[in-house]
Design a protein that fits this description.
- The protein is α/β, with parallel strands linked by helices.
- Helices cover 34% and strands 13% of the residues.
- It contains 26 helices and 22 strands.
- Strands 12-9-13-14-16-15 form a six-stranded parallel beta sheet, sandwiched between helices. Strands 1-2-3-5-4 form a five-stranded parallel beta sheet, sandwiched between helices. A five-stranded mixed beta sheet has the order 18-20-19-21-22, with helices on both faces.
- The termini are far apart.
- One of its GO terms (molecular function) is aldehyde-lyase activity.
- Its cofactor is thiamine diphosphate.
């Protein structure tokens, strides 16, 4: 696959024109992957254990493709990849070819739930796949280069979280072949004793499988050694599970793992052109890279390929020899055909509880106080209760559930934990469905594996620290984008982030905890995948979570607060507002006071054909704290500038802002104008995150320069809430000043008022720095209902 475009079975002498113009792929890891795949095939044939393989070294994809072709899974899903000369030629040509398979694993490849393009995430993903699949064996091949990454180092904690009663088993296989692209690996440089000590300390029962020698005794052959090790691991797994499931063993299980030592690029010529090849860094990627241009390298390549004796392995028609095909499992027991690897086939819609019993009673806007996440917590607890028997919904969280006021879920299920709990610990349970670990990488990997094998989940996280998994999210977004283009892939439940402890209430933790940049990262993803929601209160959070947990093939980012604050919408209005994504809050603006001007737009909330004058300024907001500040500014202007026509628009779905041709949630032009006014109307937009995110969304809208976006501009410290807002220019006083300066004809008329607001802001800042707290008029502000 790496080298050839034709003459696949070497039925004629190898010539330069048989070589691909671009040689891509990593040969060095392929022999080890092939050995593991063949060993797992043998184990499955002997035991009937449903098994899947998560392959960390993704650029070793030729090994996976070869095994999938041999077992017939490729042909099942693509008739062009038949098990004969034509099908094998097509497979080999497609590898690393335009329009074909990429050089690494991808969603186009059967059996794949992890690409391996960005190293470090295989073991956590494999663990997520094993959760709540009690009969499943998930083998996970971890490269020794990959083992040097931080995410992999954290992922070894899986041994302390897998429940032998309700979960399947993960069998890690650390593939130690000694080299990365250009330097030795740490594992390759370690001796057996060090490796055994390391992984014993991580809670595993490790075993060395060394296949580097030349074994002539069949009982010592690499295949025999791998088969014996896999049989030992399988027996140990079954012993652990049977003891736990029979109630005979409450001890912490020590799951087996294997350390496979092989030669780098095993099978290569020892040297070429006087330089060593096998078991060196030159074996890592493409050895013999000049075979098409160098006659000596071409001869070495042909000798190497013929050393596998293709005439013995394939018949005249290219069909593999019967004894080789007999080594493969059949039906759904094939590693590439296991139904869990196309988890959408198994996904069932969640039994989402009715949100009404959990909603906040809001008799009028601002007429109640509540916290968004404390309101959502009991609803999530009810969902956990509804799925208790099904066990297909979990919460993965970096040790922050109670900090983010979602502790109600712990009344229904515990935190998954296998060791004996410390005396002071609470809510720990071996069968718990809350996964708390202080590793965002683990939470992300666990959830990806869980979703891609047919289940549902939620990832609450501190907003500032979710960016730790930017790379993983990026890879997963690409996986979803490509998977949606693969005809045989079924939709999977969406990956849902609930970002709490958001930056505007991290004034007590300070600058390091203030970081809304995850939103910006999501805006770079495909419109078919990315969603960003900023519910302004508790009822809109309920409505948003209900929608997100019912969706498929998306990455939903929901940003919500945890502290008590004013509530704006009753549940019916919240549901309608979330369906629209953005809307005018008639009760908050002053347009209704002025019925004497021309209008070009209809009321978005009034009766059909209702008319209103153009606003002088639109105050827009997205996010719970920006909503409070915007409404406080609107109230100030209502009181002090009664002639100013103010429209207040709230945005809950950030991706209603782009034009409809750029994003499927984008508002049509007419609806956009209803929310934000027509050409020339200034919009002061108070945004939860970085202003650049809104500007990026607005790109392509007519007259986008009329939007003046205020947001987080990297100013912060340990201070009071108002000081943090004012230092970033997003306080109620800053918004009111901006509105007066931007509204046509008001920069002069309202100049004195704007100066007064600025002085009030500065006086508050002086006083709070003296007292250490915000004035009551700020901290206990309530909406006056327009009175």
């Amino acid at each position: 696959m790496i080298f050839l475009r034709d003459n696949i079975l070497l039925r004629e002498p190898l010539r330069p024109e048989h070589i691909k113009p671009r040689l891509l792929g990593h040969w060095g890891t392929c022999p080890g992957i092939t050995l593991v795949y063949a060993g797992l095939d043998k184990l499955v044939c002997e035991t009937g254990t449903p098994t899947m393989l998560v392959t960390g070294p993704g650029h070793g994809a030729p090994a996976n493709h070869a095994s999938l072709w041999l077992e017939g899974t490729h042909a099942d899903l693509d008739p062009a990849l038949t098990r004969d000369t034509a099908g094998l030629t097509e497979l080999v040509r497609r590898f690393s070819w335009p329009g074909g398979f990429p050089s690494h694993l991808s969603p186009q490849v059967p059996g794949v739930i992890h690409e391996g393009g960005e190293l470090g995430y295989a073991l956590a993903t494999a663990t997520g796949a094993a959760l709540d699949h009690p009969d499943l064996l998930v083998a996970c091949l971890v490269g020794d280069g990959e083992a040097e990454t931080g995410p992999t180092a954290a992922a070894w904690a899986a041994s302390r979280y897998l429940d032998p009663v309700h979960d399947g088993a993960v069998l890690p296989i650390l593939h130690v072949n000694g080299y990365k692209i250009a330097s030795p690996t740490q594992s390759g440089a370690a001796d057996d004793e060090d490796l055994l000590s390391l992984y014993t300390g991580h809670g595993w029962a490790p075993r060395i499988v060394d296949v580097r020698g030349d074994y002539h005794d069949p009982e010592l052959s690499p295949d025999a050694r791998m088969a014996e090790a896999l049989s030992w691991a399988h027996s140990r797994i079954r012993q652990v599970q049977e003891a736990a499931r029979n109630g005979a063993d409450a001890n912490v299980p020590r799951w087996p793992m294997l350390v496979l030592r092989s030669r780098k690029g095993w099978g290569l010529p020892a040297e070429s052109g006087g330089a060593p090849l096998e078991d060196t860094v030159r074996a890592h990627q493409v050895p013999l890279p000049h075979a098409a241009d160098d006659a000596a390298e071409l001869a070495d390549l042909e000798q190497w390929l013929r050393s596998y004796r293709p005439d013995e392995l394939f018949g005249a028609d290219g069909v593999p020899a019967p004894d080789i095909l007999a080594c493969c499992p059949t039906g759904d027991l094939r590693l590439g055909a296991n139904p869990v690897t196309d988890g959408g086939r198994l996904r069932r819609p969640l039994p989402l509880p009715d949100v009404r019993p959990f909603a906040v009673d809001v008799p009028e806007p601002g007429g109640a106080r509540a916290g968004a996440t404390p309101t959502a917590g009991p609803w999530l607890a009810a969902l956990l209760r509804e799925t208790e028997t099904r066990r297909d919904f979990r919460i993965m969280c970096p040790d922050e559930l109670e900090s983010n006021k979602l502790g109600a879920v712990l009344e229904v299920t515990g935190r998954a934990w296998q060791p004996e709990p410390p005396v002071a610990a609470a809510h720990l349970a071996r069968d718990g469905r809350v996964m708390e670990v202080l590793s965002e990488h683990n939470c992300q990997g666990w959830l990806q594996g869980y979703l891609l094998t047919g289940r549902h989940g939620l990832f609450p996280c501190y907003e500032a620290f979710v960016s730790i998994v930017d790379g993983m999210t990026n890879q997963y977004a690409k996986f979803l984008k490509v998977a949606a283009e693969v005809p045989w892939r079924h939709p999977v439940a969406s990956l849902n982030y609930l970002l709490t402890s958001e930056g505007w209430r991290q004034e007590h933790n300070g600058y390091s905890h203030q970081g809304p940049g995850f939103i910006n990262m999501m805006l770079t993803k495909k419109a078919s995948v990315a969603r960003v929601y900023l519910p302004p209160d508790a009822n809109t959070l309920l409505a948003t979570l209900e929608h997100c947990l019912d969706s498929v093939d998306r990455i939903n980012v929901v940003v919500a607060g945890k502290n008590d604050g004013p509530q704006w919408l009753d549940l019916d209005d919240a549901l309608a507002h979330c369906r629209a994504g953005a809307g005018v809050w008639e009760w908050a603006g002053t347009e209704a006071r002025h019925g004497d001007g021309p209008s070009a737009d209809d009321s978005p909330t009034g009766s059909p054909g209702a008319r209103r004058p153009h606003p002088d300024v639109v105050l827009a907001c997205a996010g719970n704290i920006p909503t409070v500040e915007t409404l406080a500014a609107a109230e100030m202007l209502r009181r002090d500038a009664p002639g100013l026509r103010v429209r207040v628009t709230n945005v809950v779905d950030l991706l209603t802002l782009p034009p409809a041709e750029r994003h499927p949630h984008g508002l049509p032009d007419a609806e956009f104008e209803k929310c934000f006014g027509g050409a020339g109307v200034p919009v002061v937009f108070d945004f939860h995150g970085y202003p650049s995110a809104v500007h990026e969304c607005l790109h392509g809208r007519p007259d986008a320069s009329r939007f003046h976006v205020k947001g987080y501009i990297e100013e912060g410290t340990t201070t009071t809430p108002y000081d943090l807002l004012a230092s970033n220019g997003v306080s109620r006083h800053d918004i009111a000043v901006e509105a007066l300066r931007r509204a046509e004809g008001w920069s002069t008329r309202g100049g004195e008022l704007a100066d007064r607001y600025a002085r009030e802001r500065d006086d508050i800042l002086v006083e709070l720095r003296r007292t250490g707290q915000d004035p009551v008029a700020i901290s206990e502000w309530t909406w006056d209902g327009g009175r």
